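Progress note, project year one: complex with coenzyme A.
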Amino acid sequence: MSKEKTAGLASVVAGKSAICTVGKEGKGLNYRGYSIEDLANNASFEEVAYLLIHEKLPNQTELDDYQNKLISLRTLPQELKSVLECLPKTTHPMDVMRTAVSTLGCLEPEDDFNQQAAIADRLLASLPGILLYWYHFHFQSQKIDVQSTENTLAGHFLYLLKGKTPTALEKQVMDVSLTLYAEHEFNASTFAARVAASTLSDFYSAITSAIGTLRGPLHGGANEAAMELIQRFESADEVEEKLLEMLKNKEKIMGFGHRVYSECDPRNAIIRQWSQKLSLNAKDPHYYEISEAIEKVMWDTKNLFPNLDFYSASSYYFMNIPVPLYTPIFVCSRITGWAAHIFEQRANNALIRPGSEYNGPEPRALIPIKQRD
Ligand code: COA
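Model obtained:
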Protein backbone atom coordinates (compact mmCIF):
# COMPACT_ATOMS: atom_id res chain seq x y z
CA MET A 1 0.00 0.00 0.00
CA SER A 2 1.39 3.39 -0.93
CA LYS A 3 1.76 6.05 1.74
CA GLU A 4 -0.49 8.54 -0.15
CA LYS A 5 -3.38 6.11 -0.35
CA THR A 6 -3.35 5.23 3.33
CA ALA A 7 -2.56 8.65 4.86
CA GLY A 8 -5.32 9.32 7.39
CA LEU A 9 -6.90 6.01 6.28
CA ALA A 10 -8.48 7.94 3.39
CA SER A 11 -10.47 5.57 1.14
CA VAL A 12 -9.76 2.64 3.49
CA VAL A 13 -12.90 0.59 4.15
CA ALA A 14 -12.47 -0.20 7.84
CA GLY A 15 -15.51 -2.40 8.41
CA LYS A 16 -19.15 -3.08 7.60
CA SER A 17 -21.99 -0.98 8.97
CA ALA A 18 -25.75 -0.93 8.46
CA ILE A 19 -26.28 2.46 10.10
CA CYS A 20 -25.50 5.12 7.53
CA THR A 21 -24.26 5.78 4.01
CA VAL A 22 -22.15 8.83 3.25
CA GLY A 23 -21.73 9.99 -0.34
CA LYS A 24 -22.53 6.59 -1.88
CA GLU A 25 -23.79 6.82 -5.45
CA GLY A 26 -27.57 6.47 -5.60
CA LYS A 27 -27.83 6.49 -1.81
CA GLY A 28 -26.46 9.87 -0.73
CA LEU A 29 -26.55 10.43 3.01
CA ASN A 30 -29.05 8.24 4.80
CA TYR A 31 -29.61 6.89 8.31
CA ARG A 32 -30.75 3.25 8.26
CA GLY A 33 -32.04 3.76 4.72
CA TYR A 34 -33.92 7.06 5.26
CA SER A 35 -32.54 10.04 3.34
CA ILE A 36 -31.23 13.00 5.31
CA GLU A 37 -33.61 15.29 3.41
CA ASP A 38 -36.62 13.17 4.40
CA LEU A 39 -35.52 12.96 8.01
CA ALA A 40 -34.72 16.68 8.32
CA ASN A 41 -37.99 17.74 6.66
CA ASN A 42 -40.43 15.16 8.00
CA ALA A 43 -39.19 13.74 11.30
CA SER A 44 -38.29 15.21 14.69
CA PHE A 45 -34.86 14.70 16.24
CA GLU A 46 -36.43 12.35 18.81
CA GLU A 47 -37.66 10.14 15.95
CA VAL A 48 -34.14 10.14 14.53
CA ALA A 49 -32.65 9.36 17.95
CA TYR A 50 -35.09 6.45 18.34
CA LEU A 51 -34.17 5.24 14.85
CA LEU A 52 -30.47 5.25 15.68
CA ILE A 53 -30.60 3.96 19.26
CA HIS A 54 -33.62 1.65 19.00
CA GLU A 55 -33.18 0.71 15.33
CA LYS A 56 -36.62 1.65 13.94
CA LEU A 57 -38.74 4.73 13.44
CA PRO A 58 -41.24 4.95 16.30
CA ASN A 59 -44.99 5.06 15.83
CA GLN A 60 -46.86 7.87 17.62
CA THR A 61 -47.33 5.91 20.88
CA GLU A 62 -43.69 4.84 20.94
CA LEU A 63 -42.59 8.41 20.26
CA ASP A 64 -44.78 9.81 23.07
CA ASP A 65 -43.43 7.18 25.46
CA TYR A 66 -39.88 7.90 24.33
CA GLN A 67 -40.24 11.64 24.84
CA ASN A 68 -41.65 11.10 28.32
CA LYS A 69 -38.85 8.71 29.13
CA LEU A 70 -36.21 11.22 28.00
CA ILE A 71 -37.89 13.95 30.08
CA SER A 72 -37.71 11.67 33.15
CA LEU A 73 -33.99 11.08 32.51
CA ARG A 74 -32.95 14.76 32.57
CA THR A 75 -32.14 14.87 36.29
CA LEU A 76 -28.50 15.20 37.33
CA PRO A 77 -27.11 13.51 40.46
CA GLN A 78 -25.87 15.97 43.11
CA GLU A 79 -22.34 14.50 42.86
CA LEU A 80 -22.24 15.35 39.17
CA LYS A 81 -23.46 18.89 39.84
CA SER A 82 -20.68 19.25 42.44
CA VAL A 83 -18.08 18.16 39.89
CA LEU A 84 -19.46 20.67 37.37
CA GLU A 85 -19.26 23.39 40.01
CA CYS A 86 -15.64 22.47 40.81
CA LEU A 87 -14.44 22.66 37.22
CA PRO A 88 -12.78 25.99 36.42
CA LYS A 89 -14.77 28.62 34.54
CA THR A 90 -12.00 28.57 31.94
CA THR A 91 -12.57 24.89 31.12
CA HIS A 92 -13.25 24.24 27.45
CA PRO A 93 -16.93 23.20 27.24
CA MET A 94 -15.91 20.04 25.36
CA ASP A 95 -13.74 19.12 28.33
CA VAL A 96 -16.79 19.68 30.52
CA MET A 97 -18.76 17.23 28.38
CA ARG A 98 -15.97 14.65 28.44
CA THR A 99 -15.49 14.96 32.20
CA ALA A 100 -19.22 14.83 32.90
CA VAL A 101 -19.70 11.66 30.86
CA SER A 102 -16.74 10.13 32.65
CA THR A 103 -18.20 11.17 36.02
CA LEU A 104 -21.60 9.72 35.18
CA GLY A 105 -19.76 6.52 34.27
CA CYS A 106 -18.50 6.38 37.87
CA LEU A 107 -21.88 7.22 39.40
CA GLU A 108 -24.07 5.06 37.15
CA PRO A 109 -21.61 2.48 35.74
CA GLU A 110 -22.42 0.05 32.98
CA ASP A 111 -22.36 -3.26 34.83
CA ASP A 112 -23.71 -5.21 31.93
CA PHE A 113 -23.82 -4.57 28.17
CA ASN A 114 -27.62 -5.14 28.33
CA GLN A 115 -27.83 -1.67 29.84
CA GLN A 116 -26.29 0.00 26.79
CA ALA A 117 -29.49 1.43 25.22
CA ALA A 118 -30.70 2.70 28.61
CA ILE A 119 -27.35 4.46 29.13
CA ALA A 120 -27.49 5.96 25.64
CA ASP A 121 -30.96 7.37 26.42
CA ARG A 122 -29.74 8.65 29.78
CA LEU A 123 -26.85 10.52 28.17
CA LEU A 124 -29.04 11.84 25.37
CA ALA A 125 -31.51 13.21 27.91
CA SER A 126 -28.99 14.65 30.35
CA LEU A 127 -26.22 16.16 28.17
CA PRO A 128 -28.00 19.52 27.59
CA GLY A 129 -28.57 19.90 31.34
CA ILE A 130 -24.95 18.97 32.07
CA LEU A 131 -23.56 21.58 29.70
CA LEU A 132 -25.97 24.34 30.72
CA TYR A 133 -25.76 23.66 34.46
CA TRP A 134 -21.98 24.19 34.20
CA TYR A 135 -22.45 27.22 31.94
CA HIS A 136 -24.97 29.05 34.14
CA PHE A 137 -23.11 28.21 37.35
CA HIS A 138 -19.89 29.76 36.09
CA PHE A 139 -21.11 32.53 33.80
CA GLN A 140 -24.40 33.63 35.40
CA SER A 141 -23.74 32.56 39.03
CA GLN A 142 -26.91 30.48 38.93
CA LYS A 143 -27.66 26.87 39.87
CA ILE A 144 -30.34 26.20 37.26
CA ASP A 145 -33.09 23.63 37.43
CA VAL A 146 -32.25 21.18 34.63
CA GLN A 147 -35.91 20.36 34.06
CA SER A 148 -37.99 22.39 31.64
CA THR A 149 -41.50 22.34 30.27
CA GLU A 150 -40.13 21.74 26.76
CA ASN A 151 -40.86 18.26 25.41
CA THR A 152 -38.20 18.14 22.74
CA LEU A 153 -34.46 18.12 23.19
CA ALA A 154 -34.18 21.13 20.87
CA GLY A 155 -36.65 23.18 22.89
CA HIS A 156 -35.20 21.95 26.18
CA PHE A 157 -31.65 22.98 25.20
CA LEU A 158 -32.75 26.48 24.14
CA TYR A 159 -34.97 26.91 27.20
CA LEU A 160 -32.15 25.97 29.59
CA LEU A 161 -29.77 28.29 27.76
CA LYS A 162 -32.02 31.34 27.66
CA GLY A 163 -34.34 30.74 30.61
CA LYS A 164 -37.37 31.43 28.44
CA THR A 165 -39.50 29.66 25.87
CA PRO A 166 -37.73 29.70 22.49
CA THR A 167 -39.59 30.78 19.36
CA ALA A 168 -41.11 28.13 17.09
CA LEU A 169 -38.53 28.97 14.42
CA GLU A 170 -35.63 28.57 16.85
CA LYS A 171 -36.94 25.21 18.03
CA GLN A 172 -37.38 24.04 14.46
CA VAL A 173 -33.88 25.06 13.39
CA MET A 174 -32.30 23.48 16.45
CA ASP A 175 -34.29 20.29 15.85
CA VAL A 176 -33.15 20.07 12.22
CA SER A 177 -29.58 20.86 13.22
CA LEU A 178 -29.59 18.00 15.75
CA THR A 179 -30.86 15.63 13.06
CA LEU A 180 -28.14 16.74 10.64
CA TYR A 181 -25.42 16.21 13.24
CA ALA A 182 -26.75 12.85 14.52
CA GLU A 183 -24.78 10.38 12.42
CA HIS A 184 -22.10 10.23 9.74
CA GLU A 185 -20.68 6.74 9.30
CA PHE A 186 -16.99 6.11 10.16
CA ASN A 187 -16.02 9.72 10.93
CA ALA A 188 -13.08 10.22 13.29
CA SER A 189 -15.03 10.40 16.57
CA THR A 190 -17.29 7.47 15.71
CA PHE A 191 -14.28 5.43 14.73
CA ALA A 192 -12.64 6.34 18.04
CA ALA A 193 -15.78 5.14 19.84
CA ARG A 194 -15.70 1.88 17.90
CA VAL A 195 -12.00 1.33 18.64
CA ALA A 196 -12.68 1.78 22.37
CA ALA A 197 -15.78 -0.46 22.20
CA SER A 198 -13.81 -3.13 20.33
CA THR A 199 -11.64 -3.67 23.41
CA LEU A 200 -14.88 -4.55 25.26
CA SER A 201 -14.49 -1.42 27.33
CA ASP A 202 -17.58 0.20 28.83
CA PHE A 203 -20.03 2.51 27.04
CA TYR A 204 -18.92 5.66 28.86
CA SER A 205 -15.25 5.09 27.95
CA ALA A 206 -16.20 4.76 24.29
CA ILE A 207 -18.18 8.01 24.48
CA THR A 208 -15.40 9.94 26.22
CA SER A 209 -12.99 8.75 23.50
CA ALA A 210 -15.43 10.07 20.92
CA ILE A 211 -15.89 13.43 22.63
CA GLY A 212 -12.14 13.92 22.87
CA THR A 213 -11.83 13.17 19.17
CA LEU A 214 -14.71 15.42 18.15
CA ARG A 215 -13.15 18.36 19.97
CA GLY A 216 -10.48 19.10 17.33
CA PRO A 217 -11.01 21.83 14.70
CA LEU A 218 -10.56 19.39 11.82
CA HIS A 219 -13.67 17.59 13.09
CA GLY A 220 -16.47 18.97 15.33
CA GLY A 221 -14.53 22.00 16.47
CA ALA A 222 -14.91 23.38 12.95
CA ASN A 223 -18.32 24.96 13.69
CA GLU A 224 -16.77 27.25 16.32
CA ALA A 225 -13.75 27.93 14.12
CA ALA A 226 -16.09 28.77 11.21
CA MET A 227 -17.90 31.41 13.28
CA GLU A 228 -14.58 32.90 14.34
CA LEU A 229 -13.67 33.11 10.65
CA ILE A 230 -16.97 34.76 9.66
CA GLN A 231 -16.55 37.32 12.45
CA ARG A 232 -13.20 38.41 11.05
CA PHE A 233 -15.09 40.26 8.29
CA GLU A 234 -17.12 43.40 8.76
CA SER A 235 -18.87 43.24 5.42
CA ALA A 236 -19.23 40.98 2.39
CA ASP A 237 -17.22 43.51 0.34
CA GLU A 238 -13.98 42.77 2.15
CA VAL A 239 -14.28 38.98 1.93
CA GLU A 240 -12.60 38.37 -1.42
CA GLU A 241 -9.37 40.26 -0.78
CA LYS A 242 -8.84 38.99 2.77
CA LEU A 243 -9.81 35.42 2.00
CA LEU A 244 -7.50 35.22 -1.03
CA GLU A 245 -4.71 36.45 1.23
CA MET A 246 -5.49 33.72 3.75
CA LEU A 247 -5.51 31.08 1.03
CA LYS A 248 -2.22 32.43 -0.32
CA ASN A 249 -0.80 31.95 3.17
CA LYS A 250 -2.06 28.33 3.08
CA GLU A 251 -4.53 28.91 5.90
CA LYS A 252 -7.28 26.31 6.31
CA ILE A 253 -10.70 27.86 5.90
CA MET A 254 -12.81 26.24 8.57
CA GLY A 255 -16.17 24.79 7.61
CA PHE A 256 -15.00 23.95 4.08
CA GLY A 257 -14.01 20.68 2.45
CA HIS A 258 -14.68 17.12 3.44
CA ARG A 259 -12.83 13.82 3.49
CA VAL A 260 -15.62 11.88 1.77
CA TYR A 261 -17.70 14.37 -0.21
CA SER A 262 -16.04 15.81 -3.30
CA GLU A 263 -18.63 18.25 -4.69
CA CYS A 264 -21.02 19.16 -1.90
CA ASP A 265 -22.17 18.19 1.56
CA PRO A 266 -25.89 17.33 1.28
CA ARG A 267 -26.49 18.68 4.79
CA ASN A 268 -25.30 22.11 3.73
CA ALA A 269 -28.31 22.93 1.50
CA ILE A 270 -30.61 22.15 4.43
CA ILE A 271 -28.87 24.14 7.17
CA ARG A 272 -28.05 27.01 4.80
CA GLN A 273 -31.73 27.81 4.16
CA TRP A 274 -32.42 27.84 7.90
CA SER A 275 -29.49 30.18 8.47
CA GLN A 276 -30.90 32.50 5.85
CA LYS A 277 -34.36 32.41 7.46
CA LEU A 278 -32.92 33.19 10.90
CA SER A 279 -30.82 36.03 9.50
CA LEU A 280 -33.97 37.92 8.47
CA ASN A 281 -34.74 38.70 12.13
CA ALA A 282 -31.19 38.70 13.47
CA LYS A 283 -29.36 41.71 14.82
CA ASP A 284 -26.28 40.88 12.72
CA PRO A 285 -27.86 39.74 9.43
CA HIS A 286 -24.71 40.71 7.51
CA TYR A 287 -23.05 37.52 8.79
CA TYR A 288 -25.26 35.61 6.35
CA GLU A 289 -24.11 37.77 3.42
CA ILE A 290 -20.51 37.37 4.57
CA SER A 291 -20.99 33.59 4.71
CA GLU A 292 -22.35 33.57 1.17
CA ALA A 293 -19.42 35.69 -0.02
CA ILE A 294 -16.95 33.26 1.62
CA GLU A 295 -18.76 30.34 -0.02
CA LYS A 296 -18.47 31.98 -3.46
CA VAL A 297 -14.76 32.74 -3.17
CA MET A 298 -13.98 29.25 -1.88
CA TRP A 299 -15.84 27.63 -4.76
CA ASP A 300 -14.48 29.97 -7.44
CA THR A 301 -10.86 29.69 -6.34
CA LYS A 302 -10.51 26.23 -4.78
CA ASN A 303 -13.63 24.27 -5.77
CA LEU A 304 -14.20 23.82 -2.05
CA PHE A 305 -17.75 23.74 -0.69
CA PRO A 306 -19.17 24.41 2.77
CA ASN A 307 -19.67 21.39 5.01
CA LEU A 308 -22.39 21.14 7.68
CA ASP A 309 -20.33 23.15 10.16
CA PHE A 310 -20.21 26.33 8.09
CA TYR A 311 -23.87 27.42 8.06
CA SER A 312 -24.52 25.69 11.41
CA ALA A 313 -22.18 28.32 12.82
CA SER A 314 -24.23 31.31 11.61
CA SER A 315 -27.51 29.52 12.46
CA TYR A 316 -26.41 29.14 16.08
CA TYR A 317 -25.08 32.69 16.11
CA PHE A 318 -28.42 34.07 14.93
CA MET A 319 -30.07 32.18 17.81
CA ASN A 320 -27.70 33.97 20.23
CA ILE A 321 -25.96 30.77 21.26
CA PRO A 322 -22.47 31.48 22.67
CA VAL A 323 -19.79 30.23 20.24
CA PRO A 324 -18.00 27.93 22.77
CA LEU A 325 -21.22 25.90 23.07
CA TYR A 326 -21.40 25.02 19.36
CA THR A 327 -19.31 21.85 19.46
CA PRO A 328 -21.02 20.58 22.64
CA ILE A 329 -24.35 20.83 20.75
CA PHE A 330 -22.78 18.45 18.23
CA VAL A 331 -22.14 16.06 21.17
CA CYS A 332 -25.79 16.35 22.33
CA SER A 333 -26.82 15.08 18.91
CA ARG A 334 -24.01 12.71 17.86
CA ILE A 335 -24.39 10.69 21.06
CA THR A 336 -27.14 8.89 19.08
CA GLY A 337 -24.86 7.92 16.19
CA TRP A 338 -22.00 6.97 18.51
CA ALA A 339 -24.38 4.76 20.49
CA ALA A 340 -25.61 2.99 17.34
CA HIS A 341 -22.02 2.28 16.31
CA ILE A 342 -20.99 1.01 19.75
CA PHE A 343 -23.96 -1.39 19.71
CA GLU A 344 -23.08 -2.54 16.20
CA GLN A 345 -19.43 -3.02 17.11
CA ARG A 346 -20.33 -5.05 20.19
CA ALA A 347 -22.85 -7.18 18.31
CA ASN A 348 -20.16 -8.52 15.97
CA ASN A 349 -16.97 -7.59 17.71
CA ALA A 350 -13.41 -7.92 16.53
CA LEU A 351 -10.64 -6.00 18.25
CA ILE A 352 -9.69 -3.04 16.03
CA ARG A 353 -5.94 -3.16 15.87
CA PRO A 354 -4.49 -2.37 12.44
CA GLY A 355 -0.87 -2.82 11.45
CA SER A 356 1.60 -0.16 10.39
CA GLU A 357 4.29 0.11 7.74
CA TYR A 358 7.52 0.38 9.72
CA ASN A 359 9.89 3.16 8.60
CA GLY A 360 12.16 3.38 11.64
CA PRO A 361 15.81 2.35 12.17
CA GLU A 362 17.12 -1.07 11.24
CA PRO A 363 17.79 -3.48 14.18
CA ARG A 364 20.85 -2.25 16.13
CA ALA A 365 22.84 -3.14 19.24
CA LEU A 366 22.16 -1.36 22.51
CA ILE A 367 25.28 0.45 23.76
CA PRO A 368 25.47 0.35 27.59
CA ILE A 369 24.71 3.80 29.07
CA LYS A 370 28.20 4.43 30.35
CA GLN A 371 29.67 3.99 26.87
CA ARG A 372 27.15 6.31 25.13
CA ASP A 373 28.29 9.81 23.96
N1 COA B 1 -9.34 25.38 3.41
C1 COA B 1 -8.30 25.51 2.57
N2 COA B 1 -7.76 24.48 1.89
C2 COA B 1 -8.34 23.29 2.06
C3 COA B 1 -9.43 23.08 2.91
C4 COA B 1 -9.94 24.18 3.60
N3 COA B 1 -10.97 24.07 4.41
N4 COA B 1 -9.80 21.77 2.89
C5 COA B 1 -8.94 21.18 2.06
N5 COA B 1 -8.07 22.08 1.57
C6 COA B 1 -6.97 21.83 0.65
C7 COA B 1 -5.74 21.41 1.43
O1 COA B 1 -4.95 22.49 1.82
C8 COA B 1 -5.06 20.51 0.46
O2 COA B 1 -4.42 21.30 -0.51
P1 COA B 1 -2.99 20.88 -1.10
O3 COA B 1 -3.25 19.55 -1.81
O4 COA B 1 -2.63 21.99 -2.01
O5 COA B 1 -2.07 20.72 0.06
C9 COA B 1 -6.21 19.81 -0.25
O6 COA B 1 -7.32 20.71 -0.16
C10 COA B 1 -6.60 18.49 0.41
O7 COA B 1 -6.87 18.74 1.81
P2 COA B 1 -6.63 17.73 2.98
O8 COA B 1 -6.74 18.45 4.27
O9 COA B 1 -5.38 16.93 2.74
O10 COA B 1 -7.84 16.75 2.72
P3 COA B 1 -8.55 15.88 3.78
O11 COA B 1 -9.41 14.93 3.06
O12 COA B 1 -7.59 15.32 4.76
O13 COA B 1 -9.40 17.02 4.51
C11 COA B 1 -10.75 18.09 5.98
C12 COA B 1 -10.65 16.97 4.95
C13 COA B 1 -12.20 18.17 6.44
C14 COA B 1 -9.86 17.74 7.17
C15 COA B 1 -10.30 19.43 5.37
O14 COA B 1 -11.12 19.75 4.27
C16 COA B 1 -10.30 20.53 6.38
O15 COA B 1 -9.34 20.67 7.16
N6 COA B 1 -11.38 21.36 6.43
C17 COA B 1 -11.49 22.42 7.41
C18 COA B 1 -11.96 21.85 8.74
C19 COA B 1 -13.40 21.44 8.71
O16 COA B 1 -14.25 22.17 8.22
N7 COA B 1 -13.67 20.28 9.30
C20 COA B 1 -15.01 19.75 9.40
C21 COA B 1 -15.17 18.61 8.47
S1 COA B 1 -16.85 18.06 8.41
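Strands lie at 20-24, 28-31, 34-35.
The mean pLDDT is 96.
No further modelling is planned for this target in the current period.
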